[in-house]
Structure formats: structure tokens, C-alpha cells
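Record 1 of the preview.
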Amino acid sequence: MREKIDALTQNLAQTIVGKHDAIRLVLVALLAGGHALLEDVPGVGKTLLAKSLARSIDGKFQRLQCTPDLLPTDITGTNIWNPKSGEFNFLPGPVFANVLLADEVNRSTPRTQSALLEVMEEYQVTVDGVSRPVPSPFFAIATQNPVEYQGTFPLPEAQMDRFMLSLSLGYPSEAEELQMLQRQQEGVKIEALQPCITLEELQQLRQICAKVKVDASLQQYILELVRTTRYDEEVTLGVSPRGTVALQKATQAFAFLLGRDYAIPDDVKFLAPHVLCHRLIPIGGRKSRTIMERLLRSVPIP
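->
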């Protein structure tokens, strides 16, 4: 299984140049059974990352371009009348996939955004009173532009809380961008990627990650970090208990990625900004990242 993880990381690195931390974070969300929110400007490789991941795990990939006229049934699917059989047939939506990319998710209306809530938490969709499970494993990657807000609908707290972690790919360095040009000229394409892990093996990896040891003192450290956000004077709304569980699961997956069967405080410190910041609602335009960095300095490390 260790070899499978290394092969998966190397596969993604073939198409995503120089973004080792971003690749690790996406794999953390995948192995921990969560979902990822990519907050970045267009053209930095978000779609490429999602496609590469789906191809590497030999899973079904679906891309959903969110627009204001998108309807909930465009996501979940709908019942279509079949005149030959005289009954309704269910036409599955794009959520019936292993990897779903919801591009510019904040451009869809709140009603449409809410269609993602059930599938992200319960891994099923309900249409006309009938619940249908989506394929397993199911992993959602949503993107939004943190700069351009014209014509967007900000994600509510309930939906932000569904994402295990948030991250940003950012612009590449000069050397990395030059490497991108060289690869493009050499003809390195996503179609050339070969699956390096099966869906069944991915499920096994998730079970292994859940068994990574988290000491009681480290659990107390996670708890203190989260509870501090709820009473901080610069925060309107702190992290929910779902965030507490997400931080522990992400810590277990990150430790496993680094080749350990136990977690350490440095794992929590690295992941806390990515797992907790998007769950905070700061007061008066303050930055969640700055608040989180201050809290990490103030909470004693076990």
C-alpha cells in the first residue's frame, strides 16, 4: 500500500508541476473520506488536478460548470417519462461519479448549491422521494475564484463546513512555469497517465488511515485549537464539532502519507489552517489565516 501511495503521488506530479503540498492536501482529503475546496484564480491547474486524480485511481470523472441558470436536477439527475414503457426512468446526474469537479461552485444559486449538501455528507441523492447512493468512493472537488465576486453567491457556512479542507494552488515559480512550457512542447498529456491504484485499493487505504494512532494528548490539542476559535474576540462564528472530527481524520491521513502509523503535533499544525480557516467567520474583514496563525502560537503544544 505504501508503494501505491508513492505511485499515486508521482502520477499527479507528472501533470501538476511543483505543487507538492497541494497534491498532498488533496490526497489527504481523498484518503480521509472528505472533500476539497480549491480557492484560486483561473488557469492554475485545478481542473487538471481533478482529472489527473480520477485517471490515477481509475475512477469515473465528471465536471460540472456552475452557472446562475444551473438547476438542482442538473446535478442530481431527474426522472424522464418513457412513453414506450409507460413509466418514469431515472436519468443520473453528474454526481454519479467517483471524482466530481464542481467548477466555480459559487456562481450557482443557493438552491442549486444545496443539491450538493446531501451527496457530500450522506453519499446519496434524493429525487422525487427516492434515495439513490452515488458510486463509492465519491470525492468532490469544488473551485471558486477568491478575487472576482461579481455575479456570485457566497457559500453558506453549512456548505463550507462540508469541505474537509481548503487550499490554493497559487501561481507557479519561474522555474516551474518554464518546466510547464517544456512539458507542453514534449507532448506530456493527461491521456498518457496510467491508473496506479484501483477503487478497491483506495477503500482499503481509507480503512488503514482510520487506524492511525492519535494519542490522547494530541486529541486534547486538537480540541483546544477548535474550542479556542469559538471564544476568540476576532471571530463571529467558530469551528463546529464536524471541524474537530475533520481535523483528526485529516491528521491521520497526513501521517499515513508521510509513512507513519501515528500522528504528531506537527501534522496538526500543518493541517489546521487548511481544515479550520474556511470554517471561521471573522469580525470586520479580518483574515481567517492570520487569526489561525495567532491561535496556533497561543495554544500549548503537547
